[in-house]
Amino acid sequence: MKTYKKIIEYLDDQLSESEKASFEKELNSSPSLQSEFLQYKKFKESLSGFKNIEVDESYFIDTIPKFRTRQSLLNRYKTLPRLALSLSTLLTVVLILVIFIPRSNKVVAPNKVVVVVDSNGVDFSTLLDPNSDNFNLNYISSSEASHYDSLLNSMITKSLDLSPSELSYIAPNNNSDLSGLLKNINEKEADNIYNEVLKQKILGR
Amino acid sequence: MPDTKDDFELVNSFISGNQSAFNKIVLKYQQKIYWHARRMTGNHLDADEVVQEVLIVLYKKLKDFQFKSSLYTWIYKITATRSINYLKKRNLKQIFSFEDIEAKLISSSEDILKDIETKEKLDKLEKALQKVPLRQREVFIMRNFDEMSYEEISEITGVTTGGLKANYFHAMKKIMELVQKDENL
Description:
The structure holds two protein chains of two kinds. By secondary structure, chain A is mainly alpha-helical. Chain A folds into three domains: 46 residues, no CATH class; 49 residues; 80 residues, no CATH class. Chain A has nine helices and no strands. Chain B is mainly alpha-helical. Chain B is built from nine helices and no strands. Chain B is globular. The chains are: A mainly alpha, B mainly alpha. Chains A and B meet through helix 1, helix 3 and helix 4 of A and helix 2, helix 3, helix 6 and helix 9 of B.
């Protein structure tokens, strides 16, 4: 064991009786050890002067009130992070809804010009317009009439969730029935059908 | 060592809702908490901060205290841990700051010491203490000022007695040299 360690152990009363006796014998015979020992002894004694220092007692009287004040502040501000978290979560959810979820009831803008033409180059909208010169079944060829007829049938089936056999009871299935149906269509209904066809065929909804 | 029976009653009284029992516990141990924190941090302002942190932890955890150790040992353990954590935070702050926080705090005029001569002597010791590693400083304080045995210190710090002794010898030698260099105490 190094000398300084032995001195510290001796001063701390950590040596056994035999170790103590051996150290004291060495101490009596070595002036250098004596000098080192005195340094540690003096230092150790000086430390005991720091054990009971006179202080301003008012500090210790204020410790508890200070703690209580701090505690009530902590409790008051404990809800703030929770509130901030809730608000930010809500805001995030709203932003996600606005940005990522498409609006289901999107209507084709009335001023949006989308022209759908048939195989003869005739605008489909004029075909369904009762005021148009083209609003005439004679203008439609039998194959086109059949095509529009099946288109209407599929729209009705889809909208009403019907099977083809159920549809046969309520929907026309030939050109003459379609003729009767188109004659009874007013302007508003024609617009709706036009918009619906646009949605299904052009916009894919 | 403080009265254990009295501590048991105070803790039970606090658990059953008596707030003044907590105040009594604080009054009983606050000086010990303060002085450990003061010697570890080296100044009054930081020690005061550590004391408040310790009291907050104590208030929160006292209901779970099961007397597996004495209340004194338990409080001392909290104080030792809080002091070390506080110093680690302070060191980090110092790394990211341009000013010397430690020197500023040590020279701060705010203090509870009445006697100027004692304050000067303590300043020297505190400066020397700040120059040794945390674990060495801790064992030096516990041995010299709180007169704890190595076994008690081991219970608090979780370090083996062999390790504690090695730390203590190094601390004692270095602090003595530093203080002697500065001036005789």
